[in-house]
Amino acid sequence: MRRIALFLLILALVPAIYVRQHLPPPSPYRPVIYHDLLPGLRAAGHDPRYGALTLTGAWQLTSANPDFGNFSALAVRSSGDLLAVSDRNAVMVFSRPDRPGPWHTWQRDTIRQAWRGQEIDTDSESVSVDPRSGNVLIGYEGTPRFHLFSADFTHDRKIAAPVLMEWPNNQGPESLRQLADGRTVAIGEVYAHWWSRRRHTGLIWPGLPRPNQAPARFELIMPEGYRPVELAQAPDGRLLVLGRKFTLGGFRTVVTLVADPRAIRPGAQVEAQPIAWIDDPRIRDNYEGMVATPEADGSTAIWLISDSNQMVWLQRTLLLKLKLS
Length: 325
Fold this sequence. Notes:
325 residues; mainly beta; 5-stranded mixed β-sheet; 2 helices; disordered N terminus
């Protein structure tokens, strides 16, 4: 009887498979461990502040699985859980660690076309979740198409977008978001002009991109040398653009703001205003994913996730939660 009780206790402690929304059977991934970093980052009991953002949560995510990490895009599902896509075409749906546990994760080794065994062999760099249908739109480097997955990842549909081939293989649609007004916006990491390290080409579709549909264009102006790697929309409609720059001292991160989403229009030149520089050496990393969520107190939380680039001795998978003032 004692052995049975011990066995049941062990089962209760094993991390549960994510089942809140139906998903196909996951690969045999090992558990994801959340290491809380915030207590060590606080000074005199105060949360660190970076410009208009206050750090209210910081976790290092680890797993014994060698394929874990490399997350290059972040989105939120209608359930409130987060969805991260890696540049190795893996997907992870996971509970917000700022909420009471137990936390659950659902992971898949490789995003496959309708799970029929045909691998997508280009880097996935951007993701957007439709809040109404739950469908997941993913952008890739070096391919003239998007993929639209069903909310449970059991089906996908290719959406031909030849315009994406105008961008280099390693500087494609790094930023992608379906806005509240229905438009889909993608921004390339590449500079729009050889003579400027601030301007980047953006594309606008009036709705979900249709096959071979030509988008309208605009230019996004970022701080000098920073490339846009993620686009998010706050609950109040404001747009946030995550910028990244690599220097001899490592990666530098800036969060910028476009106050009026109507500024994103055909032919426009839109300047993103910096609101926070994440240059704290204790959490400095290659942040590529960002999403905004509404909080119970009416504020907005900004979530960032870093791409470890399979360089665990130099880079980490960090998840930050920052409160927007």
